[in-house]
Design goal:
- Helices cover 31% and strands 19% of the residues.
- The protein is built from 6 helices and 6 strands.
Length: 229
Amino acid sequence: MESATSRAEGGRAGRVRDCPLDRARVAAHHKGAVNTRAWTVFLDESGVSLLPRIRRTYAPRGRTPLLRHRLNRKRASMAGALGYHSTDPERGARLCFHLKPGSYDTTALIEVLEQMKAFYRGEQVVLVWDGLSAHWSRAMRAWVAEQDWLTLERSPAYAPEPDPVELLWSSLKERELANLADDHLADVADATEQGIHRINHNPQPPWSFLAHTGLTIHPAHPPNLRKDQ
């Protein structure tokens, strides 16, 4: 397992074209990656803020826990890219992570992809992401046209189920970010990165996230998850 974390200084969701709400398109992307012996990588964005995410917790009987915060809506954005090699699962699942203040636009996403190129050492990548306008802008398409290592595919619209990175966000928000009430965005960012390190230190969660897409991964149990271990 590897992780790449970067903080940088500083789209609105839009529809380019709709796809069926099923896993057929995801399977097609996987087949294309197999044909090119490429990495299949899913990329998704989410956000964190100073507003605490309320989750159930334990407390002494009769003492309702209270969260005190300043009602500050300052936000940061994070991007996660989870992938595996289509023809060589023994190379393991790989997780990249990027965090920045504000929101992502085309320029910021191109920076993320440039870091991804270094992360995968220029190997072929089939990148699956959604219809965010910044993903399919004219500037993004022009930049991708000059990249011989990268192929973009669009995931089904309004269908988070085939996206393994959604489970990554859920894991972070249910643990490290749950009931977190801090005064500084840097503290929230640190907690988020701690969660990424937690997931990277255990090979099982990334493979579980990938299996959630419905893809058939060969072998069924990667070397670091064999039943006899």
